[in-house]
Amino acid sequence: MAKIPCPCGTELTYSNCCEMFIRGKQLPETAEGLMRSRYTAYLTGAVDYLVATRHPDFLASDEAKNISAWMM
Ligand SMILES: [Zn+2]
């Protein structure tokens, strides 16, 4: 997977782009970098990264949805 272009759409390879963020070696420096890395995490199934970088507001709304799904 190291030599493939990063799925987020930069000209960089995956290993030089979002992989560093998803593996926790480095934090994205910009909001755009964060959104790109979350997109890549979504495509590569990096669920832990998606949960770890999710805004608390979205966690709360997901919980509400989960609870209402459980109630039906
Ligand atoms: Zn990337």
Could you characterize the architecture of this molecule?
By secondary structure, the protein is mainly α. 57% of the residues lie in helices and 0% in strands. The protein is elongated, with a radius of gyration of 14 Å. The termini are far apart. The mean pLDDT is 84. Zinc ion is lined by residues 6, 8, 10, 17-18, 36, 40.
Keywords:
72 residues, mainly alpha, 4 helices, 0% strand, binds zinc ion
The whole-angstrom Rg is: 14 Å
Structural class comes to mainly alpha
- Kindly report the oligomeric state of this protein: single chain
* Tally of structural domains: 1
Helix-strand sequence? HHHH
The counted number of beta strands is 0
As a percent range, the share of strand residues is under 5%
Pick out the low-confidence regions: none
Distance between the termini: 42 Å
Bound molecules: zinc ion
**Total helical elements:** 4
- Global mean pLDDT: 84
> How much helix is in the residues?
55-70%
Shape: elongated
Explain the layout of strands and helices.
Layout: H1 18-22, H2 31-44, H3 47-52, H4 56-71
Bound molecules: zinc ion.
Task: Provide a quick synopsis of the model.
57% of the residues lie in helices and 0% in strands. By secondary structure, the protein is mainly alpha-helical.
